[in-house]
Specification:
about 170 residues; 4-stranded mixed sheet; about 0% helix; extended
Length: about 170
Amino acid sequence: LITSSLTPSTAVSLANALALYSLAPPLAAGEPPRPPVRLILQPDEASVLATEQLPLCVQGLDQYWEPTPIAPESVRWETSPGLGTVAPDGTFTGGPVPSPTSGLVTVRCGDMFASCLISVVPGPARLALLPSRLTLPPGGKQQLLLKAYDVDDNPLQIPSNRITWSCDPAT
């Protein structure tokens, strides 16, 4: 909470915390978990390189919006045509797309479902090397980081086995 004082452009902090309370009655010892009434799928949006993998996580929520287990064998996965496939454990593998392709991945459990938007790209549109400028003394060391982005500047994960490092002039 912040309130303004009598002096213009001056604010006084009254609090810096937030408390959340659950109205869910606690489960008694040995009581089975409450059944799920909705699903949450994470991430809700992502970009992935063609033929690469992206772990998806589905979680059940009970009527109080508290996490509750769902049986993995009761989950069914669906993808938009040509987008890719999802393994039973929720690992999405991008299809071999010739151009950027977006679509939905949907998870179903009984009459519940959740979806996420996935973009599959054949390759990164932009690479960034961090730090972008580097000067080292003789024998100096610096870890470099490679970042990849799609055409909409969304970050992409590139597996280390798809990266080849070189230095010119070689030292």
